[in-house]
Amino acid sequence: METPEPHSDPQERTESLEETKNAAASSPDLFGSAHLSPPAESKDAPAADSSDDSDFHAGFVTIIGEPNVGKSTLLNSLLGTKLSIVTPKPQTTRKRVLGIYTDNRMQIVFIDTPGILQPRYELHRAMLKIVQKSLKEVDTVLLLLDATRRELPIERLEQQLEMSLDQLGVPVIAAINKIDLLKNRRELLPMIHQLSQTGKIREVVPISAVTGENLDRLLDTLYQYLPQSPPLYDPELLSTHPERFFIAEFIREAVFLSTHEEIPYSTEVQLVEVKEKENNTWYIAANIIVERPSQKAILIGKDGSKIKEIGIKARQALEFHLGGKVYLDLHVKVQPKWRKNPQILRYYGYY
Ligand SMILES: Nc1nc2c(ncn2[C@@H]2O[C@H](COP(=O)(O)OP(=O)(O)OP(=O)(O)O)[C@@H](O)[C@H]2O)c(=O)[nH]1
Ligand SMILES: [Mg+2]
What CATH superfamily classification does 243-347 receive? Predict the structure, then answer.
């Protein structure tokens, strides 16, 4: 497993929100190109390279945020492998995705969640419940924000979650993502200031999940909020989901990438058969479920061109993930109003 190197001295890179705020007020150049934050005063964080077992920290961190802020990209980037599907479209993630990060001083069990939004139909309500459930019994919550969005979404998120962040009973760390898209890092200052005003956020770490910038500092920060504990899972393990979960997700990703407007949101992937044969070859049959015959026609495309395109994309992703040859058999089926039917949603694993 490829994991980012731990930073050599987390003390130097630890930064509390209050310190950021004060430093920001006194130093207008603080968020210039070189450093996003000043070294903080010494804190009682253990040394990064300690070989003492008692310095090992482990725990659960749930990643929450609005749709499309980069939660799944961050999970993949931290783990150094693609576990959670990513597309430019909002509402890509629909279920919790568990990913295990392990290095020589910590193990973080990350839970990637669906983006928090105002539910419009039963599938949205199920997605929101998945987020709410994922906030229980974790050690830290990582709130992911988008550096390019001007408005702080905290109040709206709290309304949708039907709970205040300070009622969670665990520390909330904010990471401001997509800083690679900013022309000037000083653009972060108002958001950091607003975050400090809420009194609900312990630390703020500006990051880029795509370039990897400052992810080492994010890990240093999370380390300090996790309990001393031996690893919770085998350090070699990346996830606890069965292979079938990832197979269905990679097919759904291909559908999301190849379709537009309401189509991706009206589709679900149902695996019919997954067979691992000799010589590391896989036979995978799946139904792509849509709500209406008109959507089925679009998904199949002229002379089957669309479903072929989806099949090629999905097969490539699956072959990379499974490390073998994949025979993929895709069919499109209509299941009217599946997104609105709790029984069907339960069948598809949303409850
Ligand atoms: N430039 C830039 N783009 C990013 C960054 N992180 C994520 N993205 C892009 O943002 C888009 C959404 O990323 P996702 O990881 O799917 O976002 P998400 O928060 O998981 O979205 P949902 O699952 O829909 O809630 C994709 O096009 C990513 O490539 C980043 O740090 N910089
Ligand atoms: Mg996602």
Answer: K homology (KH) domain (3.30.300.20)
